[in-house]
Design brief:
alpha/beta, single chain, 3 domains, 11 helices, about 300 residues, D-Maltodextrin-Binding Protein, domain 2
């Protein structure tokens, strides 16, 4: 399977339409279809559901699983092809869940780059982090799902990075009592529900009637702004709440709040020790200088 094949599949997923994907790849739709068929023959399973009259692409279960690794495969192939051009600057491969990478790591990257390191950033899935750390795809990973933590497994070290509270965000003003919003008083049918972690899910099921479905169930938080409209509301981590507030949303503390989420970071021995220590130090400084009660840095506690 070639890099061209991977790019074809990723374009199909990105645009959700074979014709549009073909146009953006500057090939004919029959040529794109043939590439997909060759990939499916090589893999031994179908990637997309084929239904007459349906223009939108729907992935099979195997296709969804393949997508989770396809873009990582693409990056590895690109990195392999560019080894001779990399120069002497050390590369750090960092993986983070979206809500950490976008809202907490992004602000410290400019300073990190000033030290002449190169960076490759991945959107992490907590359940895959250990596997990819072991395979050498990640040098440093930030995860939040406690279920997938196995201390020192396969030489991988797990340490707490920070504790972060949750807030409620909405573009409509919500009733405030004693400095916060009572979550159970809100309309569940207007909720955008994000299952942040197991502790959050337990808290949520205790507060709301499970027979009333939220207006949106969302796993990809990068799409949140598309849905947070009118009376809708959402529970998000504090850093994400601060971003939404900068966009005009009302952000409230929660009177009956869920437990803070703990973000952990993974390393593998002393691999890439210098750039990792630098990034960890920059993140620690940023958290302590920017957030007070909402986020508590635990990075100094985990120093060795």
């Amino acid at each position: 399977m070639t890099l061209l094949d991977i790019e074809t599949f990723l374009a199909v997923v990105k645009y959700g339409n074979l014709s549009v994907a073909a146009q953006n790849l500057f090939i004919s739709q029959p040529a794109l279809t043939r590439r997909l068929q060759y990939m499916e023959q090589e893999l031994g399973y179908p990637l997309i559901v084929r239904q007459k009259g349906h223009r939108a692409v729907q992935l099979t279960e195997q296709g969804r699983e393949f997508y989770r690794i396809a873009w990582k495969w693409q990056l590895l192939l690109e990195e392999t092809n560019s080894i001779s051009f990399s120069g002497q600057r050390e590369l750090l491969s960092v993986a983070a869940v979206n809500s950490v990478g976008r809202y907490l790591l992004a602000p410290v990257f400019p300073e990190f780059f000033s030290h002449k390191f190169r960076l490759r950033l991945y959107n992490a899935f907590s359940e895959d982090a250990y596997q990819y750390m072991e395979q050498g795809l990640y040098d440093l990973a930030f995860i939040e799902q406690q279920d997938f933590i196995h201390k020192n497994a396969h030489g991988i070290f797990t340490k707490p990075a920070f504790s972060e509270s949750f807030v409620i965000a909405s573009y409509q003003e919500l009733p405030v009592e004693d400095g916060g919003v009572l979550a159970r008083s809100l309309k569940p049918e207007q909720e955008i529900y994000v299952p942040w972690n197991n502790e959050f899910k337990f808290w949520h099921s205790d507060r709301f009637n499970n027979r009333i479905s939220p207006v949106v169930f969302l796993e990809d938080v990068s799409l949140l702004e598309c849905f947070l409209l009118d009376e809708r509301w959402v529970v998000v981590p504090a850093a994400m709440g601060r971003y939404l507030e900068s966009k005009g949303a009302h952000v409230y503390s929660i009177s009956d709040a869920p437990p803070n989420r703990i973000i952990y970071y993974l390393t593998k021995g002393d691999k890439k020790e210098t750039p990792i220590k630098l990034l960890i130090s920059l993140l620690d400084q940023y958290l302590r200088a920017t957030f007070h009660n909402e986020i508590k840095s635990l990075l100094r506690d985990g120093e060795t």
